[in-house]
């Protein structure tokens, strides 16, 4: 850099561009260090003893046979948990290790540390646990009747006696979906030699992990440092603690670093899943299609422990009507406790399940009224200034529902002739489909969801922006799970500070306050907001210090003259730390009313499918979308979120389901839990709708979840359109098409 | 038993004391952690390597069977800089969490080494054994279509 360099008005890699990922090359070369790849000298390997029963009383645990295995350093049970015996993201109701009873299949009962992984697993298998098998509670109605519930939710808005001229009813079910991140749960705990511990583990929220480790280990908060580690995908699966406390217990007990990596079948029991749901809907409308009243009853199965069931249920109820105006709303929801696998956060968080229900209802209404499916949605489209149909909250950020609908309608359905190549037919490479029998279907669906945490939660993120000779360094504990936070925070800093060099540095929980969870589509808005404000303050200080009027890669300028070089400014180790909060929210009243959300995003999808009606097979050809993004900070990453989210939505629509029999997962592996491959991927045309005015940085909204919300409903609707079958359950199974 | 084989051009030996896959040996004994373990049953392709010029899931290969073989892992795909398939994925935004990425790199390198200008269908067919949970495959297809176009 010299004083003769041309001055730039916009730094390179600023917002609105799509700079390349800073971690891309390391990931492409296999050099990026994931939690699975961590290593420490003298480290031991951990393994977990799990319940083979969904519900049983523990009569005895004999660890002696495991301790007798050569190379075993420790076997720990519930009696060895030094502090709080339970943990939980919202309510600490889950035992660190089960003591009296086990309540779900795969629940941890003991943990082992040994010199290598095979030895640890052999030792875990040698622990003898005597159980008295109990009847598992697996039926949601039975649980509801027995008042085994995590939360009940009531929404009453408007005239409860209102009735419409046209009424349609439906009953809908959503199966249990797995996040199936490619990287399983993994971590390394390293004792610090002074009674404390450093934890490096898969996570979406290191500060809340740290709090839970501190409580269950009975340590002082400054004795536990949780470090962001390399993550192989998350999608909600890493919000809850799983191996974190176990690793720290084993490390402190043995005095040695301990590593643990779940295998795939363990991973299916080691994290929470998307809640299966049952929904009863009744929609009333006028003859012109105006919604008069929506009634819904929603039951979600939380499984054995609380996790985030309360919040997921609330979301399902708050978004039970969708992005539509309606003055009379009745919603009753319940999240029940059973002996099924625990459920919690997954991309879309309650909004996905109800979207399948209400969008099927909107199509039913359109059919009953002989209206175009987009016209009925347009007629009822929710907009800025309207009250939320459920909570009554006035929407005061941009909500371009109408623009989403108009954009979807304007997007041409690209010419899709039936392929000559049988590989492209529903039977795929099985070559089983008779091309003459294939039926094509098209459907639309819209979805809405909150951004950030709701119901009065103090939702904040801290970030620090430091000026170094190498450029700006953004220090944060916000987790990068693959979505591109490391790219977008740097873009925000570049734009706000005015310089081209910016990188993100992840720091542990002792060095910075919480960034909150990488969930609820919130980090771009929250950690991005903190980064923006810190960078602005830093720029302000630099200009003040040198009485300058501009700052860029060259240095500080005043009236067109360079007054201090970048190198000079960077010697002062300037930094600003900012904690950013979104507008406050509050808990709902007894009828579910109130300002419970900070912001919303709306998206719509149009699915085009080919169906083999005899074999019940589906090929999803296209899923086109329009999405409200506020301001597109990194268009290519947004497209990546959209395509990836749609693929997970398609998975839920036609193939992905955890099959449970009496509390036992029957398909805890990638051979039997079907994930979409590249041959299942639809073509996607995506339109980003930019309407600024949100409180996110530069007006940006979170973009991660909307792609999964209505894509499932659109695909299911398209199958319904192709076949005329009711399609009241996802994933749609071949028999639902062939015999439904 | 002792097994000797070549990994990324270098002769190496591994001591195998119990049933282990080639993937276990690469990751745990040889420190080559680029190949990933994600499904342990050959469904996801995250552990893809070239074994005597044949693309395999290293989780399905018994380590005891590779005596005298030549193995190329993601770490050996590019002798210097980036292989064109790596460059193409980087530029197209085809990497998110990256856990599947090494498998895609090895598989795509095998495809492009055999067929420098594959069609869209050929690209999809070649990559059908690799699961990506983040991208929805769009950027991956675009990356390799662009690379193939450039090679025509």
Explain how this protein is built.
The complex is a heterodimer of chains A (740) and B (152). Chain A has 740 residues and is of the alpha+beta class. Chain A is built from 17 helices and 31 strands. In chain A, helix 15 (635-654) packs across helix 16. The radius of gyration of chain A is 26 Å and the shape is globular. Mean pLDDT of chain A is 96; it is low at 1-5. Chain B is of the alpha+beta class and 152 residues long. Chain B has helices at 22-29, 84-92, 101-114, 120-126, 138-151, and strands at residues 2-7, 10-15, 48-51, 54-57, 70-72. In chain B, helix 2 packs across helix 3. The radius of gyration of chain B is 15 Å and the shape is globular. Classes of the chains: A alpha+beta (740), B alpha+beta (152). At the A-B interface, helix 1 and helix 15 of A face helix 2, helix 3, helix 4 and helix 5 of B.
The largest beta-sheet of chain A arranges its strands as 3-7-1-14-11-12-13
Task: Give me the Rg of chain B, rounded.
Answer: 15 Å
SSE arrangement of chain B, N to C: EEHEEEHHHH
Proportion of beta-strand residues of chain A: 25-35%
Largest interchain contact: A-B, 58 and 53 residues
Enumerate the spans of chain B where pLDDT stays under 50 for 5 or more consecutive residues.
none
- N-to-C terminal Cα separation of chain B, in Å? 48 Å
Assembly level: heterodimer
Poorly predicted ranges of chain A: 1-5
Q: How can the largest sheet of chain A be summarized?
A: 7 strands, mixed
Portion in helices of chain B: 25-40%
Strand content of chain B: 15-25%
Structural class of chain B: alpha+beta
Overall strand count of chain B: 5
């Amino acid at each position: 850099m010299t004083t003769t360099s041309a001055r730039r008005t916009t730094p390179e890699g600023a917002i609105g561009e799509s700079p390349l990922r800073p971690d891309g090359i390391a990931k492409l070369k296999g050099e990026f260090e994931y939690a699975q790849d961590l290593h420490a000298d003298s480290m031991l390997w951990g393994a977990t003893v799990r319940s083979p029963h969904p519900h049983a009383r523990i009569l005895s645990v004999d660890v002696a046979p495991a301790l007798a295995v050569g190379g075993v350093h420790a076997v720990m049970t519930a009696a060895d948990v030094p502090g709080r015996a339970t943990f939980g993201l919202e309510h600490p109701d889950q035992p660190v290790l089960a003591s009296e009873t086990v309540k779900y299949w795969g629940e941890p009962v003991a943990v082992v540390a040994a010199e290598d992984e095979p030895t640890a697993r052999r030792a875990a298998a040698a622990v003898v646990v005597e159980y008295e098998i109990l009847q598992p509670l697996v039926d949601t109605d039975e649980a509801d009747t027995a008042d085994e519930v995590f939360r009940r939710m009531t929404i009453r808005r408007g005239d409860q006696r209102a009735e419409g001229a046209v009424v349609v009813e439906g009953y809908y079910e959503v199966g249990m979906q797995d996040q199936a991140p490619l990287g399983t749960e993994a971590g390394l705990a390293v004792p610090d030699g002074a009674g404390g511990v450093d934890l490096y583990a898969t996570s979406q929220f290191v500060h809340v992990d740290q709090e839970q480790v501190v409580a269950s280990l009975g340590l002082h908060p400054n004795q536990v440092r949780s470090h962001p580690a390399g993550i192989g995908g998350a999608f909600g699966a890493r919000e809850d603690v799983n191996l974190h406390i176990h690793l720290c217990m084993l490390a402190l007990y043995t005095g040695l670093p301990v590593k643990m990596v779940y295998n795939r079948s363990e991973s299916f029991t080691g994290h929470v899943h998307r809640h299966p749901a049952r929904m009863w809907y009744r929609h009333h409308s006028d003859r012109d299609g105006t919604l008069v009243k929506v009634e819904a009853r929603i039951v979600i199965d939380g499984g054995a422990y609380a996790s985030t069931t309360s919040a997921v249920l609330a979301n399902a109820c708050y978004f039970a009507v969708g992005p539509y105006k309606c003055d009379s709303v009745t919603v009753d929801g319940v999240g029940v406790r059973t002996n099924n696998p625990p459920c919690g956060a997954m991309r879309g968080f309650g909004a996905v399940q109800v979207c399948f229900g209400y969008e099927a209802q909107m199509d039913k209404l359109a059919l009953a009224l002989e209206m175009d499916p987009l016209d009925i949605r347009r007629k009822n489209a929710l907009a800025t200034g309207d009250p939320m149909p459920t909570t009554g909250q006035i929407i005061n950020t941009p909500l371009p529902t109408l623009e989403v609908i108009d954009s979807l309608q304007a997007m041409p359905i690209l010419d899709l002739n039936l392929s000559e190549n049988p590989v492209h037919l529903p039977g795929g490479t099985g070559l089983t489909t008779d091309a003459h029998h294939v039926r094509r279907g098209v459907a639309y669906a819209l979805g809405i969801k909150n951004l950030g945490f709701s119901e009065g939660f103090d939702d904040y993120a801290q970030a620090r922006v430091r000026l170094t000779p190498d450029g700006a360094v953004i220090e944060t504990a916000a987790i990068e799970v693959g979505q591109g936070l490391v790219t977008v925070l740097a873009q925000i800093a570049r734009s706000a500070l005015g310089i081209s060099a910016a990188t993100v540095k992840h720091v542990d929980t002792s060095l910075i306050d919480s960034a909150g969870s990488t969930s609820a589509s919130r980090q771009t808005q929250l950690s991005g907001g903190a980064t923006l404000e810190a960078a602005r303050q830093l720029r302000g200080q630099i200009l003040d210090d040198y009485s300058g009027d501009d700052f860029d890669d060259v240095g500080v300028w005043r009236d067109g003259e360079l007054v201090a070089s970048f190198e000079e400014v960077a010697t002062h180790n300037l930094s600003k730390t900012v904690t950013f909060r979104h507008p406050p929210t509050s808990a709902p009243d007894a009828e579910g009313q109130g300002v419970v959300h900070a912001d919303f995003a709306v998206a719509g999808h149009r699915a085009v499918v080919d169906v083999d009606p005899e074999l019940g097979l589906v090929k999803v050809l296209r899923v086109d979308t329009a999405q409200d993004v506020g301001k597109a900070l990194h268009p290519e990453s947004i497209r990546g979120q959209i395509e990836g989210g749609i693929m997970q939505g398609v998975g839920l629509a036609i193939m992905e389901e955890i099959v449970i029999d009496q509390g036992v997962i029957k398909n805890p592996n990638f051979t039997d839990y079907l994930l979409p491959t590249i041959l299942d991927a639809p073509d996607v045309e995506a339109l980003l709708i930019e309407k600024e005015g949100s409180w996110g940085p530069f007006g940006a909204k979170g973009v991660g979840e909307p792609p999964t919300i209505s894509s499932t409903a659109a695909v299911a609707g398209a199958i319904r359109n192709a076949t005329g079958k009711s399609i009241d359950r996802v994933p749609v199974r071949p028999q639902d098409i062939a015999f439904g | 038993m002792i097994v000797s084989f070549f990994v990324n051009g270098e002769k190496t030996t591994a001591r195998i004391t119990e049933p282990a896959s080639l993937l276990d040996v690469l990751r745990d004994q040889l420190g080559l952690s680029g190949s990933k373990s994600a499904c342990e049953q050959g469904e996801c392709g995250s552990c893809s390597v070239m074994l005597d010029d044949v693309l395999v899931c290293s989780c399905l290969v018994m380590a005891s069977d590779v005596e005298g073989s030549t193995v190329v892992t993601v770490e050996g795909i590019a002798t210097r800089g980036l292989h064109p398939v790596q460059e193409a994925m980087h530029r197209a935004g085809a990497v998110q969490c990256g856990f599947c990425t090494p498998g895609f790199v090895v598989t795509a390198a095998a495809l492009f080494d055999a067929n420098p200008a594959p069609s869209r269908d050929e690209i999809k067919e070649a990559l059908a054994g690799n699961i990506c949970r983040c991208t929805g495959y769009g950027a991956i297809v675009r990356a390799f279509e662009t690379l193939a176009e450039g090679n025509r």
